[in-house]
Q: What sequence folds into this?
């Protein structure tokens, strides 16, 4: 499968990862997975549980010394409905509604806004919490201005990944939602699914280059869309381990764009792509939706012979069902 990103997208990930690396963005422990090992607490969607979950994620990325208050916001009503800080539930009195902003500096700490609708979906909830911590890191480290308003969302996603929350971000970049028309893929991130996979693969390869153990169970922790993008992303950065090493040895050069990226595709795949037999890049989300649509169309367009045979079998089944136990049909 051709690489599902453009060279420009891949270069952005590397250059901005270098910016974050210079600011000290790195996992303080293992890469966080959506498992009981990292999230042992029961979760009942109460404000107390939401606050506890956010505090645990802060600990995982080494930001537990940063003061934060999580508030639940009803977007339709445009009001704060509850405060979730410190494991207690308050009225949220005195806290201003964050008009479209995920975080806001509040004295010596930050107020984090979580929409009530986001609490209902566990992947969405952990994704927005991860992104919020990415925004906090950008501000605490003093590099938020380096990203600017246009890149703030993508920068938060990348920062969260660099801190060790890349699996959560990747899962949030391609969320399968069942609806009346079938399965649709949605995103709770600014990064696309391929970009989020690149960010995760970059962090994994950086950890391995530093002599740390290969993360166990990482791919099992990825959802379908994220897993499809991660394999080619990992191959790409394995082919560019010299670039990965420069995140620590020469981040200034990477930030300036002084590097070249080699394709992670094999020679045969590169030749076929160049000759036009394979098209690149391929968006895995669009491809998944096309496959789902094709599957539905296939089921509808049944072969006439098979349809006739099925009708015969159904008639035979009805005939057998009409027989009394142990005998022939009644007269």
A:
């Amino acid at each position: 499968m051709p690489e599902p990103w453009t060279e420009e997208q891949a270069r952005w990930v590397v250059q901005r990862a270098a910016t974050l690396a210079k600011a000290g963005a790195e996992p303080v422990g293992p890469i966080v997975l959506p498992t009981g090992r990292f999230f042992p607490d029961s979760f009942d969607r109460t404000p107390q549980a939401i606050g506890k979950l956010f505090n645990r994620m802060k600990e995982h990325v080494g930001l537990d010394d940063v003061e934060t208050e999580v508030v639940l916001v009803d977007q339709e009503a445009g009001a704060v409905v509850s405060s979730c800080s410190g494991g207690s539930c308050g009225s949220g009195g005195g806290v201003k509604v964050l008009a479209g902003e995920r975080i806001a500096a509040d004295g010596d700490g930050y107020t984090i806004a979580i929409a009530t609708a986001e609490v209902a979906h566990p992947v969405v909830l952990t994704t927005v919490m991860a992104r919020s911590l990415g925004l906090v890191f950008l501000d605490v480290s003093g590099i938020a201005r380096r990203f600017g308003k246009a890149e703030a969302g993508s920068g938060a996603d990348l920062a969260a990944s660099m801190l060790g929350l890349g699996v959560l971000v990747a899962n949030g970049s391609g969320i399968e939602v069942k609806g009346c028309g079938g399965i649709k893929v949605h995103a709770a991130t600014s990064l696309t699914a391929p970009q989020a996979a690149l960010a995760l693969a970059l962090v994994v390869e950086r950890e391995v280059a530093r002599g740390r153990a290969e993360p166990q169970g990482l791919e099992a922790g990825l959802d379908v869309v994220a897993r499809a993008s991660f394999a080619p992303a990992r191959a790409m950065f394995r082919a560019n381990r010299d670039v990965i090493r420069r995140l620590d040895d020469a981040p200034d050069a990477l930030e300036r764009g002084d590097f070249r990226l080699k394709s992670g595709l094999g020679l045969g795949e590169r030749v076929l792509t160049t000759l036009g037999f394979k098209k690149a890049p391929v968006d895995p989300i669009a491809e998944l939706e096309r496959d789902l649509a094709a599957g539905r169309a296939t089921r509808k367009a049944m072969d006439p012979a098979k349809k006739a045979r099925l009708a015969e079998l159904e008639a035979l089944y009805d005939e057998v069902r009409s027989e009394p136990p142990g005998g022939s049909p009644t007269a």
